[in-house]
Structure formats: C-alpha cells, structure tokens
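Morning - GLP inputs below, output right after.
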Amino acid sequence: MRIIIKDTPQQVAVWAADLIASRIRRKAEHTPAPFVLGLPTGSTPLETYKELIRRHKAGEMSFANVITFNMDEYVGLPEEHPESYHSFMRRNFFNRIDIRPENIHILDGNAPDLARECADYEAAIAAAGGIDLFLGGVGEDGHIAFNEPFSSLASRTRIKTLTPDTLAANARFFGGDTSLVPAQALTVGVGTILAAREVAILATGRRKARAVRHGVEGPYDHRWPVSALQTHSCGIIVCDEAAAEELRVATYRYFKNIETACNP
Ligand code: GLP
C-alpha cells in the first residue's frame, strides 16, 4: 500500500487531481475506450472536485470520455433533495464539467426493487469494463462508501443499515438532526471497490487519524473496512498531516522518505 502524506488538505486535493488527470491521459494514449472512474461524496473530496473543475475550466482536462460510478446513495431520500448524493454530485462536480449525462451512474435509492438495482449496478460496472480508478473517502470509524464496520470485506453492491456513528456524523447535513438522516443506503461493496484497478482513499483532518492508523498499521480486519485496502495491489491512502497524526513515527518517516526519494 502507498501512503502519501501531504501538508494540507489543499495539497491532498492537488495530488488526487494529478492522479486522476494522469490516469485519464495514460489510458487515452492506449485506447479510445472511456476511462471508468469511481467517485465518492462527503466533504473530503470537495477540494479535489474544485481542483478538477478548475483544470477543466482552464482547458487542461476533459471528462468527455469518462464514465463515472458513484459509491453510494441514501435509500428513500428523493433524488432532488439537496442532500441526496445525486444532488451533491450535480452541484459540486457534474454540472461544472463536460461529462456526458449518460456516462454518469449513481445508485437509485428509490428504485422499486433495491436488490435488483444493486445487481444491475454491478452489471453496469462490468459492462463498462470495470473501474479503472476508484476514488474514496473514509469515515471516522473506518467505513468506506457505506460499508460500515463488520461489513464483509468481499461484499458487493447492496443495501446497508447505517450505524449510529455514521448517522450522527452525517446529521450535520440534515440540520444536525440525526432522525432526519436516512437509516439505510445502497452502497458498492468493499469487494466492488477492491475490484477496481487502482484505489485511492483520501483522508484529511484530525478526526480521520484513528481510521488511517487502523487502515495502515492495523491488521486486515472487518472492524475497520478501510484496512481491506492492504490486499489491493494498487491501493493508495492520500492524507494530510492531521490525518497522519496517529501513525507511529517509524511508519510516518518510512512513507515520507519514500515520497521524497521518488520526488526529490
Ligand atoms: C459518508 C460517505 C462516505 C464518506 C464518508 C466520510 O459516510 N458515504 O463515502 O467517505 O461519509 O465523509 P467526509 O468526507 O464528509 O468525512
């Protein structure tokens, strides 16, 4: 696993945007097939989205040949609700870049048959040729997408009931009222994320330090779903200094030294 430790959240965003831009470019050099990008919501990726939008507006990047699959969506929240992940993605990213609407995939949390919706989503990912790069965030309790602690590390897209911790963490988007946060979500599984050719998890701020420590230094452990990244051949955690704060000094220095050696 690669751990990239940057000074600030802004530098994390620039690093992530560089990664996405370079991977889109690299694929385009070899094939006309679209680049398949997995995307998260949450406050962490917002800076990355801003940086990608800035590059697009500056004429440096196009998303015309990109297909996206979002990680998750609440169950039962109307799509037009401002806190649905459909609204979030339109507002913070899709409406401001040149992606084709038909290339955007987000789970439908209001589908009449939710199990069918999840199975169809997995099939759509497969039909697109699999995900080239899955970008993600991490919850304070180590969840990735909505794969809460004790999720199967081989899981695929399915319906999940959210933990009280996640409901409390996400209440800030619902006027601070936990009871307004939908209790369930559709989410890609840990296995779906790990099936991507490359996975980059972003973590910024002190609140994520414990999850980063368990993900990097802890064992492969379903109590900390982010630790599953340890089994991926191209898994990266990109964090800022605050989120790296609970790493052992030896771990911190090891990854900082590698990065300096690679980018003198
Ligand atoms: C939600 C999302 C996750 C996200 C997490 C952390 O639970 N389903 O995909 O990683 O929140 O969000 P934030 O980046 O706001 O801390």
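Note: Residues 40-44, 71-72, 137-139, 145-146, 166, 170 surround GLP (CB under 6 Å).

O.
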